[in-house]
């Protein structure tokens, strides 16, 4: 559960188009789109991320700044309406990430499609790792919990808005802070999370 909760950090920040390009153009779904990705959201991402683009897109694009790289340029008519109208696009810590990742179950019906009748999760998770959270029943249950779907009817308006995510995030961050230093044995704290640290030889004795 902690990994699901900590993935909620993707409620803020941006990602390079190159990271998600394969999900938009080189996957197994119709038009090269990953079949787990919501097709409407995929259209929005393609508008911001043409092939080879170095643009940045929001991990959680709920809000009003829906331009490309904050340029004020709207990719196509209706783009702002599709993404929302709040002025805090991509910069607010809230449960909207889990609501978007949760998506919904649908059936593909396109005749002759390799994915015909495949039950998929129309998730609006920007990263593949986001959509993988709902690839199992237990993952779906955790995502639904963080989306607030299990909050009782008598809960306060504030609790219904962002609980239990805020509570769970605090607990998971506390656990994360108690992890032992992975540098021994055989681990390391990476300077760049994508690559292992460059191992340099120690300077000569007497240098």
TrEMBL record:
<feature type="binding site">
    <location>
        <position position="60"/>
    </location>
    <ligand>
        <name>Ca(2+)</name>
    </ligand>
</feature>
<dbReference type="GO" id="GO:0140825">
    <property type="term" value="F:lactoperoxidase activity"/>
</dbReference>
<protein>
    <recommendedName>
        <fullName>Plant heme peroxidase family profile domain-containing protein</fullName>
    </recommendedName>
</protein>
<keyword id="KW-0575">Peroxidase</keyword>
<dbReference type="InterPro" id="IPR019793">
    <property type="entry name" value="Peroxidases_heam-ligand_BS"/>
</dbReference>
<dbReference type="InterPro" id="IPR000823">
    <property type="entry name" value="Peroxidase_pln"/>
</dbReference>
<keyword id="KW-1015">Disulfide bond</keyword>
<keyword id="KW-0479">Metal-binding</keyword>
<comment type="similarity">
    <text>Belongs to the peroxidase family. Ascorbate peroxidase subfamily.</text>
</comment>
<dbReference type="GO" id="GO:0046872">
    <property type="term" value="F:metal ion binding"/>
</dbReference>
<feature type="binding site">
    <location>
        <position position="11"/>
    </location>
    <ligand>
        <name>Ca(2+)</name>
    </ligand>
</feature>
<dbReference type="InterPro" id="IPR010255">
    <property type="entry name" value="Haem_peroxidase_sf"/>
</dbReference>
<keyword id="KW-0408">Iron</keyword>
<keyword id="KW-0560">Oxidoreductase</keyword>
<feature type="disulfide bond">
    <location>
        <begin position="17"/>
        <end position="49"/>
    </location>
</feature>
<feature type="binding site">
    <location>
        <position position="94"/>
    </location>
    <ligand>
        <name>Ca(2+)</name>
    </ligand>
</feature>
<dbReference type="Pfam" id="PF00141">
    <property type="entry name" value="peroxidase"/>
</dbReference>
<keyword id="KW-0349">Heme</keyword>
<feature type="domain" description="Plant heme peroxidase family profile">
    <location>
        <begin position="1"/>
        <end position="197"/>
    </location>
</feature>
<keyword id="KW-0106">Calcium</keyword>
<dbReference type="InterPro" id="IPR002016">
    <property type="entry name" value="Haem_peroxidase"/>
</dbReference>
<feature type="binding site" description="axial binding residue">
    <location>
        <position position="10"/>
    </location>
    <ligand>
        <name>heme b</name>
    </ligand>
</feature>
């Amino acid at each position: 559960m902690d990994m699901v909760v900590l993935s909620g950090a993707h409620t803020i920040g941006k990602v390079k188009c190159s990271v998600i390009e394969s999900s938009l153009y080189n996957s197994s779904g119709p038009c090269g789109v990953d079949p787990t990705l919501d097709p409407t959201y995929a259209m929005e991402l393609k508008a911001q991320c043409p092939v080879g683009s170095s643009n940045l897109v929001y991990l959680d694009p709920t809000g009003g700044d829906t331009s490309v790289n904050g340029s004020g340029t709207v990719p196509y008519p209706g783009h702002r309406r599709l993404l929302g109208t709040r002025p805090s696009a991509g910069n607010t810590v809230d449960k909207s990430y889990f609501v978007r990742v949760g998506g919904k179950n649908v059936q593909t019906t396109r005749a002759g499609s390799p994915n015909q009748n495949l039950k998929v999760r129309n998730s609006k998770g920007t990263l593949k790792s986001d959509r993988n959270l709902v690839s199992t029943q237990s993952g779906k249950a955790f995502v639904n919990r963080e989306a607030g779907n299990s909050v009782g009817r008598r809960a306060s308006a504030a609790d219904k808005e962002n609980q239990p995510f805020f509570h769970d995030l605090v607990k998971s961050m506390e656990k994360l802070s108690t992890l032992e230093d992975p540098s021994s044995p055989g681990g390391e704290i990476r300077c760049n999370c994508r690559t292992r640290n460059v191992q340099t030889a120690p300077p000569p004795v007497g240098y």
